[in-house]
Design goal:
By secondary structure, this protein is α+β, with helices and mostly antiparallel strands. The protein is built from 6 helices and 8 strands; from the N terminus they run βββββαααβββααα. The protein is elongated and about 65 Å long.
């Protein structure tokens, strides 16, 4: 049983029975967990009665309490962590937020804490609300996710330990890393070094990063396509 209110974000919600939802939460220290939020949906086509529990919402920094032993807990409290209007994401920025949430649901194991990734997620959400360009935000988050899960190769060195040179080309060998390959279709070392430095100012770097990160994520996402990618078109 979890006694204290715990900081969290809602990653996903789906209907459960007549008036409830199953909510996927991301917590800083306890990782991803699923809980039933009872009485937060209307009944039989009408608004119906609402329970005392506030209806959870995505992209809102929140506090929650739950009971049970899992893997499916019961949510007993959920409330926004700060007063004021909820963050508003629309268009591509909403699609970007949904994409991050879907990645976390598919990539993270239940009850496996990722404090640094939680903090990166919160910072990226805040940036989504600003005028910051979307592609660099998503590429940085993909890189952080791969690093935290242990699936990111070294972008500064090859599999043989040689340093990546900006004027050479390299081929990706899964999450083992990069090997020298002078074929014109291989990745330029300059792009790899820019990715290592989180520098996505160049369109070519963003394009190569998109290709590399998709290749690295694919083995861990399974055969089902990410629905949110259809909204992003990138």
């Amino acid at each position: 049983m979890q006694e204290q209110l715990t900081a969290n974000y809602v990653l996903h919600m789906r209907p459960f029975r007549e008036t409830s939802q199953i909510v996927e939460l991301l917590t800083r220290d306890e990782g991803r967990l699923a809980a039933v939020a009872r009485g937060v949906r209307g009944r039989s086509g009408s608004r119906g009665r609402r329970g005392a529990l506030a209806a959870p919402r995505q992209f809102v920094p929140a506090l929650a309490r739950w009971i049970g032993r899992g893997p499916l807990f019961t949510l007993t409290a959920w409330e926004p962590a700060v007063a004021g209007p909820a963050p508003v994401l629309a268009g591509e920025r909403l699609a970007g937020g949904l994409y991050m949430n879907e990645l976390l649901v598919r990539m993270l194991k239940p009850a496996d804490g990722h404090p640094a990734l939680y903090d990166d997620y919160a910072l990226t959400l805040a940036a989504l609300e600003s005028e910051a360009a979307l592609p660099p935000l998503l590429r940085r988050f993909e890189h952080r996710l791969l690093l935290d899960c242990g699936y990111a190769p070294d972008f500064r060195a090859t599999v043989t330990g040689d340093g990546v040179l900006p004027d050479r080309r390299y081929r990706l060998h899964g999450d083992e890393g990069f090997a020298r390959d002078d074929d014109a279709g291989a990745f330029p070392g300059s792009a790899l070094l820019a990715i290592a430095a989180d520098d996505y100012s160049q369109a070519t770097t963003r394009r190569h990063a998109l290709t590399i990160f998709r290749a690295l994520l694919a083995p861990h996402l399974g055969n089902r396509p990410l629905k949110s990618r259809e909204l992003l078109h990138r």
